[in-house]
Amino acid sequence: MNKAILLISCLFSTVFKNAFSQFPKAQITNGIVSAVLYLPDSVTGYYRGTRFDWSGINAEIIYDGHNFSGQWFEQYDPLLHDAVMGPVEAFAPLGYEELSSGGQFVVIGVGVLQKQDSNYSPYRLYKMINHGRWKISTTPNRIQFIHELHDSNYSYKYEKTEILPKGKARMILIHHLKNTGKHIMKTQVYDHNFFLIDGQPTGPAFEIIFPFQLTEKKEGQGLGEKISIAGNRIVVNRSFLKNEQAYTILEGYGQTSKDYDIRIENHKTGAGIHITANRPVSKLVFWACSTILCPEPYMDLNIRHGETVTWKISYQFYSCKKDSL
User: Fold this and answer.
1) SS3 content of the chain, % helix, strand, coil (to 5)
2) Which of 22, 126, 183, 229 is most buried as measured by Cβ atoms within 10 A of its Cβ?
């Protein structure tokens, strides 16, 4: 590399880092795992889209020299629907179907939005009517987000705490969602696991392991020839080309939380994640592109006025078998 190219590269790197240093963030660690999180803010926040819960966007998750998160998308825009990283959750909208165009609906962890068309699309940016109020508190190994929203139809208090337990290679997400409004809150929440393991692109070094035999539901795009189901595993047959994707709905899980049990492993770098939760899976989606591959387990939530529902998702980080090159 000549000096001119090196100088340009250094300048670009500096500008890039400075651009992203403006976003409010926090760091937590237990001495084994460390995480950097972008904080929700309607003016300066890293993510200001209307699809995903604004809390818990992990820019970095470091364990044993491995990084499990990072920017997997090429173009960044704070209003882009999926400009998020790490294990990010999204809730189905409340009150959308009953509204005429221009009416107001609610997405938990986002706020009150304005309806613009007959069918809800998570890929669309909706006009924000009410951001609600965020409160954030931290200790060395944990961060808590509280989002309170008061609306004429749906109101709630949502608490989400990310904990790195002392002495463990683990990250835990604990949720409390209280219905403080007058209508029943009937929704789904799913965890879109945007784990970028050591920056590795989607290819044969990856596999995803479940505790049950997998089958594909006969709808959607299907996995095609790029990815296969092998019993209880998803295996990648070849590296993805740019702009290639795979999507399917998976079945085979039961009605208890024991099937909310997913392992993502990369056998080139030897890094793995074990994902478990204390509620059953209600739907299971798999999506992949050239940079990332994501199991997406759903949970059903039905919360009456004054009730609080809780759930916990745990991520165990570990070393897995390395394939010889």
Assistant:
1) 10, 45, 45
2) 126
d(CA 27, CA 183): 37
The answer as to CATH 2.70.98.10 being correct for domain 24-319 is: yes
The domain segmentation of the chain, as residue ranges, is 24-319
In sequence order, which residues have a C-beta less than 8 Å from that of residue 289 and are 6 or more positions away? Answer: 72, 202, 240, 243, 244, 245
Long-range contacts at 238-241 (CB < 8 A, ≥ 24 apart) = 238/203, 238/204, 239/201, 239/202, 239/203, 239/204, 239/290, 240/201, 240/202, 240/203, 240/288, 240/289, 240/290, 241/290
87 closest CA partner among 301, 309, 296, 317: 296
Tens digits of residue pLDDT in 70-83: 999 999 999 999 99
Q: Encode pLDDT of 287-307 as tens digits.
A: 999 999 999 999 999 999 999
